Amino acid sequence: MTGVYLSALALSHFRSHKRCELDLDGRPVAIYGPNGAGKTNILEAVSLLSPGRGLRRASAEEMARRPESVGWRVSGVLQRRGAEHEIDTRSEGGASRVVRVDGKVAPQNALGRLVRVVWLVPVMDRLWVEGAEGRRRFLDRMTLSFVPDHGDAVLTYEKAMRERNRLLKDQVRDPAWYGALETQMAKAGAEIGANRRLAIRRVVGAQMQAETAFPVAELGLIGSDGDAAPEAEADLATALADGRARDLAAGRTLIGPHRDDLSATYLAKGMPARECSTGEQKALLISLILANGRAVAADGEGAPLLLLDEVAAHLDGDRRAALYDEICALGAQAFMSGTGPELFTELGTRAQAFELDRDGAVHEGSIG
Question: What would the pLDDT profile of 9-30 be if each residue is shown by its tens digit?
Fold first, then answer.
């Protein structure tokens, strides 16, 4: 039994599911069925019990079941430190989603103080070879698992940056207009950078301290020009002020945490992740997710919920067994999807299994 887990999950008019209810006991959850049955939709629903737009980054309107489009609801019962919390998030008529915790309306960031959720989905397989934006999101999701208030700093920074960008686009040159905004950006930006570096240290440390079948990655935070990102508030404020002329020409802010990147090196080979094979890149991602879980659990908060979509499809039997052993040793409630029960054989009775048929109906499954 895990320290933090969902004991119930319910979906209503969410994506392909008109109604879906799961009774859970804290063990890892294996969800299998044919393509298009709605497996990933269940994982996405769980991701919405944390701050942000979920693992697909979809709008509230896009999550509504069609053709009804009557609004959707995702609810869960969270067991945490011996206490039970009811979490509910919903959207009606395409409106922004509303969050309730124990029956009371709450900001999304309140979810981050209750439960940590990290995920690995197939689109992330190209994380190391595509643009920096996806790597920043990956890093910020990890950072939220250590610093629940990280999202507040990001929102503060982005709000001030939007105002500054508006001035830049309008070609406003009076320094007086920029001072207050750049002060806000520097303060929030320094906090964002400090939080990200903390997360990197924690995850790298958790990798180094564990015997694991997955490779270790050395991580770093770099600025948009490939050099170290400014760390101190005063340094970032100076960089913003000094960069106004360049930013005016571009019409947008070109330096700051919104341009930072996460670097990764396969430590045993001394090879940048972007130059590794597809299989090695996937193994590095799995290693980071597991290390993230170990580091959070070491804080006494309980392991985060893990969402692993189609994670076993490209792993051989030995690596699958190693992954499942690590998840169980961690005590994490991992929600995993796959096309058939054979992908989860190594879990046996250590997991709950649910089978989805072609119509998306959920049945009790078997993998042992």
Answer: 999 999 999 999 999 999 999 9
**CA nearest 229: which of 199, 202, 194?**
194
Reading the block at residue 133, the tokens are: 């934006």
Q: Is 25 domain-assigned?
A: no
CATH of the domain at 240: 1.20.1050.90
Q: How far is CA 101 from the centre of its chain?
A: 20
Domain hosting residue 153, numbered range? 128-277
What is the rounded radius of gyration, in angstroms, for the C-alpha atoms of the chain? 21
What average pLDDT does this structure show over 296-321?
91
Mean pLDDT, range 250-261, rounded to an integer: 95
Q: How far is CA 97 from CA 10, 93, 100, in A?
A: 16, 10, 10
Q: pTM higher than 0.85 for the full model? A: yes
Q: Enter the DSSP assignment of 121.
A: -
Residue 333 CB contacts under 8 Å (≥ 6 apart), including other chains: 2, 4, 5, 6, 24, 26, 27, 28, 29, 303, 305, 306
CA distances (Å), origin 73, targets 61, 66, 86, 88, 236? 12, 14, 13, 7, 42
- 153 assigned to some structural domain: yes
Query: Is residue 192 included in any domain, yes or no?
Result: yes
Q: What is the domain count for the chain?
A: 1
| Closest among 315, 316, 289, 293 to 304, alpha carbons compared | 293
Q: Count of residues for the chain?
A: 368
Q: Identity (one letter) of the amino acid at 48?
A: L
H or E segment at 336?
Answer: strand 334-338
Q: Which of 107, 185, 181, 178 is nearest to 148 (CA)?
A: 107
Per-residue model confidence (pLDDT) at position 82: 87
**Is 287 part of a structural domain of the chain?**
no
- Give whole-number Cα distances, 149 to 2, 108, 153, in Å: 24, 11, 7
- Within 13 Å of residue 45, how many CA atoms lie on the same side as its CB? 32
CA 311/CA 326 separation, integer angstroms: 14
